[in-house]
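Q: Focus on the chain.
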Amino acid sequence: MTRAGIFIMWLLHGLPLPVLAWFGNFLGLLLYMLGRERRRVAHINLGLCFPDMPRHERKRLVRRHFQAFGRSFIERGVLWWSSAARIRKLVRVTGLEHYTAAAAHGPVILLVPHFVALDVGWSWLTQHGNLVSMYSNQKDPYFHKQLLQGRLRFGQSQLYARQQGLRPIIKAMRGRLPFYYLPDQDLATRDSLFIPFFGVPAATLTTIPRLAEITGARVVPCIARMLPDAAGYEVHFYPAWDNYPIGDLAADTRRVNEFIEQRVREMPEQYFWLHKRFKTRPEGEEKLY
């Protein structure tokens, strides 16, 4: 099934973006109907994060998220196989001055939360310079291979498995490679603190403040989003964080979650609700999934 899905991505990738969006929305609705377990996870996540949201609104939001997720899968074919010129034409970049100013003064950590268009930011940035990032091993070896090839098609960026730890990341950052980092997944309690995310304690990685302290890097948030009506994408860079880190690991990590919360409220349908964000619980608490 994985090979067939990737073949379909390749087959469709040359079509206009509105047509790809239609296929992606259709795929998302199909996954919504068939993916009972992930549908349940999304409902639990939204119920925890937005407890006052009426059930019918939550159901509509889950359906819209599945559509956005379906689009991200189909449209990834554009990022993997279309020309660099086509990708640049589809992407509108704002706030780039914040990134270039920070990079001119030293190492940079790009804070990139799990929104469905996050690979758009990587594809655009790697056309203009090299990056370093981490990846999680995928269960399907064929998809894993395609994912790495797609992400490494431009320039000479570096990707390391999470199991390799932070040592190669620190070395690359000291060589002035910006670190493209996705901090908002539950990877159990190692290197994590329980920090509120929408008021719910969530195992949250402390990597950003620790790396910023070790390397002296500036933290520049970067958000990629799908524009309405399949008009393309926007990659927006936010100002580098001043007075960060402050030396309080919990407070510094909380700032990461607060920033992500603000962006989620702006486009909740594009945040990755299918992940079991609250899987790891503080000692004595019941499992949520």
